[in-house]
């Protein structure tokens, strides 16, 4: 029997992974998977607003009208223009917007691959990074949607690529404009990290040669000026002219709304920022009771709460520290439904080690990434947040985890100390899990075990070290991908598609009501999508807040005055009648769930509608697990 040469097998595999077509095949697989998922759409919540704004852009462009004064800027408008143009060429469609989002995601993968390959290693390592990003929970969840996570990922990677490729500061500044437009909070975190990085490097240069203090400060000012002129101009034009649509989140952040800085303060209020947001009955750690006169910790597991009590002599700061430490354990913060603890903690500790090495070796560019990671994680921890907000920094987390597995593993002491802390946090986090506890425990134990044996394999079986690292990456990747797909088909978009039909059959509902001039209908879970199909573009530019009168933009704002669909709440037939007369409503419709345990908003009003003498029943339309009841206003 011929002896198998494991060295030759390893060599063949490594040569294959070094070839560029390996990442192309991976991206093609992602394309096919997300395209399949895109046909199981359930556009709800935030993305229905983005879809409606995209349709407003399309309508304005078709009338040769600029969009700057209309409701088109919520979480940006630049990434809404391409699908809006597609709406003009073809017709408005949820699918077109979704496919554009998928295209952005695929481009993001390629940019990330180039970024890793050109700056941090060979193709096999870059491929591993792309694989971990592809299998990230939020990546798979967000790709077949029109949410803003993929545009923010694309813009951040574009900035990092331009930054590490040493492109001109103007190009870097324009990339930051894209990031500002895609997700403003990601932009401001990156800005804080970038300015901090520039200050640190300026201080280091000045410390080495104090005679250059003035020159270094002048260079710093010039660099900041050039890089941030585009984004500063973008914000100024947004709030003072008709050129840039207003993003009300920016206005709220700067306190330019009637409520001032209330929203910003609330985002960083300790109690809401540290609440376990899985559900109302989720296990959580209550704030310590400083008033109690006890000298030790008391852990009480009654009513799903762990109450921690301290001596009244201790500083109340312990309250806050305890709450934020607890937040690190909650599933919506770090887990397989966001980014796993077994990725984040090794990445964090590795970033500290890398920063010290890169500063010592005067690798200034590289030292930016640790600062970016720390700034982002700090903001994520301190503000009201969950896994979706962590997603844009996933490429940086993955990079440092790759370094941890491939480089830090050669320093056993540092490696195992980090792994010990990570294991403790991962195991403590299991206490707060609410579903699939056994499966998650097995996945965590399996990955931890692979991480434990990896340095041993690396030291004594060098031929197998690549397989050991690959096993770690594959186990994490398949775990997060399985979590994403399981969520999609049990609680997420695919589940709702199978339960209610494509986009809850809003298109069919509106088609059935096409003869109505103005109608009232209850919210079946995707209310603004009904506006999208109904071509009701009367969307308010001052979303959620009112601009202060002193803001020049307020006087410029416009709204399409064509309301033809309403979903307001009404208590009595008399109040409904008043609204019907005021809004000239000629049709009242109500969607009622026929699936046990699932109710739509106000569906309990059906019997009441049958008893109103000025409404005439026009029959019903049977849909998937629901029925549409139609009433005509008679006088």
Summarize the structure.
The chain is mainly α and 635 residues long.
Polypeptide structure, described:
- The protein has 635 residues and is mainly α.
- Helices cover 58% and strands 6% of the residues.
- Among the domains are: 268-320, no CATH class; 503-633, no CATH class.
- It has helices at residues 6-18, 21-38, 46-62, 81-89, 94-120, 123-134, 137-142, 149-164, 169-182, 184-208, 213-240, 248-253, 262-267, 270-273, 317-327, 341-360, 368-382, 387-390, 394-406, 412-429, 437-460, 465-490, 493-500, 506-512, 527-534, 573-583, 606-610, and strands at residues 284-286, 305-307, 519-521, 565-566, 587-593, 615-623, 626-633.
- Helix 3 (46-62) packs parallel to helix 25 and helix 8 (149-164) packs antiparallel against helix 9.
- Residues 1-10, 290-305 and 309-313 have low confidence and may be disordered.
Residue windows where pLDDT falls under 50 for at least 5 positions: 1-10, 290-305, 309-313
Percentage beta strand:
5-15%
Structural class: mainly alpha
User: In DSSP terms, counting alpha (H) and pi (I) runs of 4 or more, how many helices?
Assistant: 27
Percent in helix: 55-70%
Could you give the count of β-strands? Answer: 7
- How many strands, what sense, and barrel or not for the largest sheet? 5 strands, mixed
Q: Tell me the Rg in angstroms.
A: 27 Å
* Spatial order of the strands forming the largest sheet: 4-3-5-7-6
Tell me, what's the shape? globular
Distance between the termini: 93 Å
What's the average pLDDT? 87
């Amino acid at each position: 029997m011929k002896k198998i040469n494991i060295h030759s097998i390893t060599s063949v595999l490594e040569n294959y992974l070094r070839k560029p077509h390996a990442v192309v095949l991976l991206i093609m697989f992602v394309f096919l998977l997300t395209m399949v998922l895109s046909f199981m759409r359930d556009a709800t919540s935030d993305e229905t607003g983005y879809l409606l704004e995209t349709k407003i852009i399309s309508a304005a462009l078709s009338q040769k009208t600029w969009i700057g004064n209309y409701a088109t800027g919520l979480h940006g408008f630049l990434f809404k223009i391409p699908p809006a143009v597609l709406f003009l060429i073809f017709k408005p469609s949820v699918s077109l917007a979704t496919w554009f989002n998928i295209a952005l995601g695929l481009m993001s993968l390629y940019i990330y691959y180039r970024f890793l390959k050109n700056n941090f290693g060979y193709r096999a390592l870059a491929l591993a990074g792309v694989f971990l990003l592809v299998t990230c929970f939020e990546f798979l969840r967000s790709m077949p949607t029109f949410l803003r996570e993929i545009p923010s990922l694309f813009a951040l990677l574009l900035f990092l690529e331009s930054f590490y490729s040493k492109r001109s500061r103007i190009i870097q500044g324009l990339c930051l404009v894209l990031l500002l437009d895609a997700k403003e909070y990601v932009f401001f975190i990156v800005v804080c990290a970038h300015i901090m990085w520039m200050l640190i490097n300026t201080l280091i240069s000045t410390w080495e040669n104090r005679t250059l203090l003035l020159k270094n400060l002048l260079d710093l000012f010039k660099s900041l000026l050039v890089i941030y002129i585009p984004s500063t101009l973008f914000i100024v034009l947004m709030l003072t002219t008709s050129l840039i649509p207003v993003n009300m989140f920016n206005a709220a952040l700067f306190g330019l709304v009637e409520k001032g800085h209330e929203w910003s303060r609330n985002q960083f209020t300790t109690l809401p920022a540290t609440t376990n947001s899985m559900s109302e009955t989720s296990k959580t750690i209550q704030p310590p009771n400083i008033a109690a006169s006890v000298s030790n910790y008391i852990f009480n597991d009654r009513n799903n709460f762990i109450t921690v009590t301290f001596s009244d002599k201790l500083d109340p700061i312990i309250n806050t520290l305890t709450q934020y430490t607890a937040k690190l354990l909650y599933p919506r913060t770090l887990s397989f439904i966001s980014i796993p603890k077994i990725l984040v903690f090794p990445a964090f500790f590795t970033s500290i080690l890398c920063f010290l090495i890169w500063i010592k070796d005067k690798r200034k560019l590289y030292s930016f990434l640790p600062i970016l990671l720390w700034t982002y994680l700090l903001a994520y921890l301190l503000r009201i947040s969950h896994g979706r907000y962590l997603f844009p920094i996933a490429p940086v987390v993955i990079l440092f985890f790759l370094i941890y597995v491939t480089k830090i593993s050669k320093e056993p002491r540092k490696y195992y100390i980090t792994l010990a802390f990570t294991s403790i946090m991962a195991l403590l986090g299991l206490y707060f899990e609410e579903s699939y506890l056994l499966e998650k425990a097995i996945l965590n134990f399996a990955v931890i075990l692979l991480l434990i044996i990896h340095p041993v394999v690396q030291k004594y079986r060098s031929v197998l070290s690549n397989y050991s690292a690959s096993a770690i990456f594959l186990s994490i990747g398949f775990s997060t991908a399985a979590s994403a797909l399981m969520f999609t088909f049990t609680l997420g978009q695919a589940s709702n598609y199978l339960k209610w039909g494509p986009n809850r059959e809003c298109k069919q509902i509106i088609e059935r009501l096409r003869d109505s001039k103005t109608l009232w209908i209850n919210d079946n879970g995707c209310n603004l999508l009904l506006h999208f199909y109904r071509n009701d573009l009367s969307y308010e530019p001052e979303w959620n807040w009112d601009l202060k009168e002193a803001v020049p933009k307020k006087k410029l704002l416009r709204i399409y005055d064509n309301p033809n669909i309403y979903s307001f709440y009404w208590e009595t037939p008399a109040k409904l009648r008043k609204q019907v007369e005021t809004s000239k409503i000629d049709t009242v419709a109500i969607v009622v769930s026929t699936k046990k345990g699932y109710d739509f908003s106000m569906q309990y009003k059906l019997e009441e509608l049958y008893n109103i003498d000025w409404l005439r029943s026009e029959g019903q339309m049977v849909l998937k697990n629901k029925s549409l009841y139609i009433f005509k206003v008679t006088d």
